[in-house]
Amino acid sequence: MHSLDLMPGPQENVWLATLRANPDHARNYARRWSNLVAEGRDIYGEARLIDAMAERGSNILDAGCGTGRIGGWLAERGHRVVGVDLDETLIEVARRDWPQADWQVQNLAELSLLDESGNPAEFDLVVSAGNVLTFLSVDERLPTLARLREHLATDGRIVVGFGAGRGYDFDEFEADADRAGLVLEQRYSTWTLRPPAADFLVAVLAARPH
């Protein structure tokens, strides 16, 4: 299956470029999610899928966590959650709204989370929703996937979702995942696990055995 994505990949991190053009972008983004909740909208569909895939009390990494809507919801349900985002404003919102989780400011391409022994922290599940991967520059893509691979526990899985037409062709993503030592186990078109389609990708990945 080929995507509808025909745009070239960005040479600069899209989020940082947008912030430079509009310093209020992060605050406006956070306010939009708050407004959706106030309207009674369901914004936790991705989190429900991850919860269904996880044993209770799992270690979960929310990669590109934004305001914490996914990781925070999972933390409330008993999981040990670490959320990472490069935007300090969004992390401040996550820390305020979801104090049950650990929120950190980091660029995913340089992700480094250590356990008590100084080794890479391992997670049973890694989730990256909200088109996070399409905000990465071309040069950040492979390092990000490799870093996520390094933080997977034995039998851990990564679940990512992003839309077509955003500069990251699905076939390119699969090739990058393969180069990063990941195996595509399942592919869907929605977070409710509809069959594959050309407009959106939800991919479940695992580490390739050494």
Automatic annotation (TrEMBL):
Question: Gene3D superfamilies from the xrefs?
Answer: Vaccinia Virus protein VP39
A GO biological process of this protein is:
methylation
- The Methyltransferase domain sits at 60-156
Q: Does the keyword Transcription apply?
A: no
* Keyword set, alphabetical order: Methyltransferase, S-adenosyl-L-methionine, Transferase
Under CDD domains, the record lists:
AdoMet_MTases (cd02440)
Q: Which GO terms describe its molecular function?
A: methyltransferase activity
InterPro entries per UniProt: Methyltransf_25, SAM-dependent_MTases_sf
* Family annotation (Pfam families): Methyltransf_25
This protein's record includes keyword Transferase = yes
- The protein's name: Class I SAM-dependent methyltransferase
Which source organism?
Answer: Brooklawnia propionicigenes
